[in-house]
Amino acid sequence: MTDWRPPFAYLPGQTARHPEGAFDRFKQVAPGALSASMPWRLGLDLYHEGFFWEAHELWEAVWLAAPPNSAERCAIQGVIQLANAALKRRMGREAAAQRLDDLAEAHLLEAARRGADVMALTETQILALKKIARGPQKYAIKCTLR
């Protein structure tokens, strides 16, 4: 893993965007090891620290590597939607955030229906991710992967 963090959390319309390719070195995903991949794990850390756009950026690489129509792809899509909801909420766009919360919920429910502990996330960890997306406060439960 890495202790690297971006110098700031990107907030569209309010902060500068990160340089093109700033996250490329962290986007390598080995086939069959999605939940252990650098972009997945670093994305979880960044999400917990309030780097929502940055987590989304990393998770897109994992989503692209996931098998089509798989439980993993549903779970990743749901978590990406949570990051996007948190970002929209931070931008003061509550209606957009709520719509994304609903989309995330649908993806996460479908992922759970297809397989337990998808992407090495427990139900408790998924609830913690949802709480972060729905409010600015920090929560004690952090997604520590097995």
TrEMBL record:
Gene3D superfamilies, per the entry: TTHA0068-like
Which superkingdom? Answer: Bacteria
InterPro entries in the record:
DUF309, TTHA0068_sf
State what protein this is by name.
DUF309 domain-containing protein
Provide the species name.
Tropicibacter naphthalenivorans
